[in-house]
Prior knowledge:
Elements: E1 2-7, H1 11-26, E2 30-32, E3 40-45, H2 50-64, E4 71-76, H3 77-81, E5 93-95, E6 111-113, E7 133-137, E8 139-140, H4 151-155, E9 159-160, H5 163-171, E10 179-183, E11 191-192, E12 195-196, H6 198-205, E13 211-214, H7 224-231, E14 239-241, H8 249-255, H9 261-274, E15 279-286, H10 293-306, E16 310-315, H11 323-328, H12 335-359, E17 362-371, E18 374-379, E19 384-387, E20 396-405, E21 408-413
Parallel strand pairs: 1-2, 1-3, 3-4, 4-5, 5-6, 7-10, 10-13, 14-15, 15-16, 19-21
Antiparallel strand pairs: 8-9, 11-12, 17-18, 17-20, 18-19, 20-21
Helix pairs in contact: 6-7, 10-12
Amino acid sequence: MKFSILTLGCKVNKYESDALIFELRSMGHEANDELGFADAYIINTCAVTNESEKKSRQMIERARKFNPNAKVYVMGCAAQNRPEQFADRNVEFVVGTAGKKKLLENLQNKGQQLFELPTEYEDDLFSAQTLTRAFIKIQDGCNNFCTYCIIPYLRGRSRSRKMESVIDEVSKLGESVKEVVLVGVDVCDYRIDGEKGLGLLLQQLDKFGKRLRLSSMEDNLIDEDFMQRLASTKNFCPHFHLSLQSGCDNVLKKMNRKYTTADYEASVKLIRKYFPLAGITTDVIVGFPTETEEDFKQTLEFVERVGFSQVHIFPFSMREGTVAQKLYKDKDMSGTIKSERVKRLEEVAKRLKANFLAKNKTAKVLIEEKNGEYFEGYSENYIKCFVQGDLNVGDVVEVTIEKPFKEGVLCSLA
């Protein structure tokens, strides 16, 4: 039987989908992650915004265009949040975020079953990685409960994978995998015996000689001890996706973000103390309810002062079931105001990215693919690089940065 697993949302979902592909192949099925003809489709859904849930529903119809008679299974955050939204879409079986592997035990069943969210890390899914970059899940759940976010209610409380299990999975990666990205819902809360352990884990993984990269991070992880551990980790890639969400303290407080702009700025300075050319990227939510024009101007000024290498900008999306929805249900601002503020922030972000690229003269690049005449890959500090030459996918090469090009830089072999 041929399965296609289609994934929306975060890198955690991607890891879990890859793991199910591996399990299905072990069961004797053909499985991939391509949107094409298949006998059955598994939709791994996202619920981070209303639009994400909409896209999750639409993916069912997109799949059925390739095979109207295919069986469709649904799992993930949107299914956990509102399983009933898939009830009238002729799907076979629906599960949420817990017990995703159990979906494979229910391929002959119909209906839906939401398993209780676990309190311990479910260490039953392992992904077979064959690409140049491998995503390794080390943590699940979140304890932060930001007022705009529904994910803690869908993924459960924070829980960490045992370090020995992570090390074992990385040790089995093939030589073609040159980079490991550690992912989780809140990677910064990764713990070993109850204590913060992300720095120690990175040091332990360093021995495998693969580039090590972190997914989205929180401000509370950055301190001298953590930065010293990173500096001593030979293969660590100095790219920090440090979530901001707002550059205004009043808005941060209403978001229930547990830091101030002063805390955040101190973290950035500490990062640059150890890694002067670190890529520091971030997320900013524009148009949070009650965000005034003055609040937004403070965000613009803060983003400019920090000097991010890239800013991901999102207009606020009211999520049913969140604290923000309960407190500010009637205070969501117009889409026109949000769009105007997004454009203003985009102008700042574009200028900051150009400034960051200009500071970089050389780079070490992992070649991941070839498109047309250019090989493409990312530098250690996460600059998209385009280079020509006698190269192969999987090569790690030294390059000289020539000039801005497309969404990154044009390079020549050093």
